[in-house]
Design a protein that fits this description.
Structural class: mainly alpha
Number of domains: 1
CATH superfamily: 5'-nuclease
Number of strands: 5
Strand content: 5-15%
Order of helices and strands: EHHEHHEHEHEHHH
Mean pLDDT: 95
CATH architecture: 3-Layer(aba) Sandwich
CATH topology: Rossmann fold
Number of helices: 9
Low-confidence stretches: none
Largest sheet: 3 strands, parallel
Radius of gyration: 15 Å
Distance between the termini: 29 Å
């Protein structure tokens, strides 16, 4: 399977100490250079910056071959490059959280999931304690409606 990720899912999985879910669920994740740049940026949370110092073997950084696309004017660099790379690679799945970016990705025929979908899948595989993971996620800057969090919890608890 070809899995491409934007910054957000990786960022929040690092912050809630669940980054090891990605290789357990997907074996390899491909990110564009812009996503790596966002993760390692001095404005990124310190645990995220530190994590990028030793890039794990399951994370592959791949540049996009079509650097110009109209979505570059609509989204941040990581989101736009992740969508473009997912299209170039004919990815099976794109990990993406931002609502505007998700809408554009869907319009382009991409299959997407975000951090909540990752936690859902990990819970189904009995890899995490969902209430703890959700509480940890709520303690970050990640935003989702309380009803969305509750829907996920109700599904498994």
């Amino acid at each position: 399977m070809i899995i491409v990720s934007d910054t957000s899912p990786i960022n929040y999985l690092i912050l809630i100490d669940q980054i090891d879910l990605l290789p357990q669920l997907f074996e390899q994740i491909i990110i564009p250079q812009a996503v790596y740049n966002e993760l390692s940026d001095s404005l990124a949370p310190l645990p995220v910056q530190s994590w990028t110092v030793d890039t794990p073997s399951w994370l592959k950084i791949q540049p996009v071959s079509q650097p110009t696309d109209e979505i570059k004017n609509l989204l941040d660099p990581g989101e736009s490059e992740a969508i473009i790379l997912a299209q170039e690679l004919n990815a099976d799945l794109l990990l993406l959280d931002d609502m505007k970016a998700r809408r554009i990705a869907k319009e382009r025929g991409l299959v997407i999931t975000g951090i909540l979908g990752i936690l859902d899948q990990a819970t189904s595989m009995k890899l995490i304690n969902l209430p703890n993971a959700v509480q940890s996620l709520k303690n970050t800057s990640f935003w989702a409606s309380d009803s969305l969090f509750q829907k996920l919890l109700d599904k498994h608890c």
